[in-house]
């Protein structure tokens, strides 16, 4: 593995590397859990006392984005996007290796789109972009406040305006959301199952895009540092974000988290979604799911938390969202023992799968993938995970016959500040960056 790829794997996947609690508990009481958060820096090196990363303040002021209850109703649409321009990248981009993933259940089970079904479709042969985010920073004053979490939030998260600008640019540049199941199909030959590449047919001049969200569990540290608290359903069955504002007020909003923002954008721009696809939510389980504390069956609140979580999950599935395993305890699959991986995976299946339903997708915590000829890989495939997602600097999709391996690009502060050239075909990071992320850097 190249040094560049090792660095990406070391820094790409989460607050888990920098923020307390996100790495998950040592469920087996062994010494093979991930390194403590403080021991790893974005570059994969042990930081020295007083080390800091130099950042230049943005000259622009951030756009206003209210987070109060009802700031934007679902039927008012999402962020407005300009029409595609002539400078958008072309569909075919040579020099990218083809790689792809697997799943149970046909993609046709998803909510359909009449617009997509009536459009003329063409075979797409270029790379497939897969980008991922963490829950959005809804309250920058809590995230960028100079405390121990400040740097982690600047490195691993994006703000609401940044996400909205990215979505607008992706739309202008002719990307269209697809479901990961559109990339492969299952065939049985001589009694053996094989996953093969599926011909991808899209509306003309459109380029496929998969968006995934990691750690949408709303861990306790997230609730204290600027993320929303949980996803809820409003009286009309729409998904919204519940939180307590920095002032301590309860808020139900549609404009400060990825799910309701993307739902609204697709309502306003249905040609941004192919047959109703939205995104994929990768969940752990050690602090419940989607903000509901479903990890403790002995809790007096367990049944009510589970009941509410199931309602939200059902609605998400109805509206084009899917789920993936991110491991139960967010443990590094490459570093931990085989037995620890088995125990962690089985616990996810016992506690989380009954809520989300079966999924064919495993998103490696930290982006740290296992080797394809290893016992760990064979176990994950036997466990029903046909699509294994790591992290990389460019689109990567490979079919092994028994599984599909796919890399994702991390979209966060590090990517915006340091990897703009790699992302320029999707969006201009200079135009995306929110001045709010330099709030503490500007303090005397």
Automatic annotation (TrEMBL):
A Pfam family the protein falls into: Polysacc_deac_1
UniProt feature, compositional bias: Polar residues: 42-51, 88-101
Subcellular localization(s) per the UniProt record: Secreted
GO BP: any one term: carbohydrate metabolic process
Molecular-function GO terms, alphabetical: hydrolase activity, acting on carbon-nitrogen (but not peptide) bonds
Signal peptide span: 1-23
Region annotated Disordered, chain positions: 21-117
Broad class of the protein's primary localization: secreted
Positions with biased composition (Basic and acidic residues): 52-76
GO cellular component, one term: extracellular region
Domain NodB homology stretches: 311-371
Keywords for this protein: Signal
Keyword Signal: yes
Protein name: NodB homology domain-containing protein
Organism annotation: Brevibacillus thermoruber
């Amino acid at each position: 593995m190249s040094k560049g790829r090792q660095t990406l794997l070391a820094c790409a996947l989460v607050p888990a590397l920098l923020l307390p609690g996100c790495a998950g508990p040592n469920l087996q009481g062994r010494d093979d859990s991930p390194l403590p958060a403080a021991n790893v820096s974005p570059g994969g090196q042990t930081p020295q006392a007083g080390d800091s990363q130099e950042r230049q303040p943005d000259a622009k002021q951030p756009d206003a984005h209210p987070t109060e209850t009802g700031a934007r109703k679902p039927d008012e649409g999402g962020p407005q996007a300009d029409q595609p321009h002539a400078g958008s990248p072309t569909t075919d981009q040579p020099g990218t290796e083809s790689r792809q993933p697997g799943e149970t259940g046909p993609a046709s089970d998803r909510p359909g789109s009449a617009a997509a079904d009536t459009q003329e479709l063409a075979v797409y042969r270029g790379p497939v972009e897969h980008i991922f985010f963490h829950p959005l920073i809804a309250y920058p004053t809590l995230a960028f406040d100079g405390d121990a979490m400040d740097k982690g939030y600047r490195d691993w998260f994006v703000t609401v305006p940044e996400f909205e600008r990215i979505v607008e640019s992706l739309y202008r540049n002719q990307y269209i959301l697809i479901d990961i199941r559109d990339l492969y199909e299952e065939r049985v030959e001589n009694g053996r199952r094989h996953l093969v590449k599926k011909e991808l047919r899209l509306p003309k001049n459109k380029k496929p895009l998969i968006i995934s969200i990691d750690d949408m569990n709303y861990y306790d540290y997230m609730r204290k540092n600027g993320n929303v608290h949980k996803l809820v359903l409003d009286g009309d069955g729409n998904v919204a974000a519940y939180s307590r504002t920095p002032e301590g007020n309860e808020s139900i909003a549609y404009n400060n988290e990825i799910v309701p923002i993307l739902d609204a954008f697709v309502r306003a721009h249905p040609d941004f979604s192919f047959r109703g696809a939205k995104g994929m939510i990768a969940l752990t389980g050690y602090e419940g799911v989607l903000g509901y504390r479903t990890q403790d069956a002995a809790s007096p609140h367990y049944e009510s938390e589970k009941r509410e979580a199931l309602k939200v999950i059902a609605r998400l599935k109805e509206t084009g969202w899917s789920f993936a395993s991110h491991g139960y305890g967010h443990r590094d699959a490459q570093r931990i023992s085989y037995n620890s991986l088995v125990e962690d995976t089985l616990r996810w299946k016992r506690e989380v799968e009954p809520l989300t339903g079966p999924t064919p997708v495993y998103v490696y915590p930290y982006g740290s993938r296992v080797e394809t000829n290893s016992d760990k890989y064979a176990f994950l495939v036997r466990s029903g995970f046909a699509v294994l997602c790591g992290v990389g600097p460019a689109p990567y999709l490979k079919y092994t016959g028994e599984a599909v391996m796919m890399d994702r690009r991390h979209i966060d502060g590090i990517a915006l500040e340091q990897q703009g050239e790699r992302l320029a075909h999707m969006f201009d990071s200079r135009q995306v960056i929110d001045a709010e992320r330099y709030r503490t850097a500007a303090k005397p």
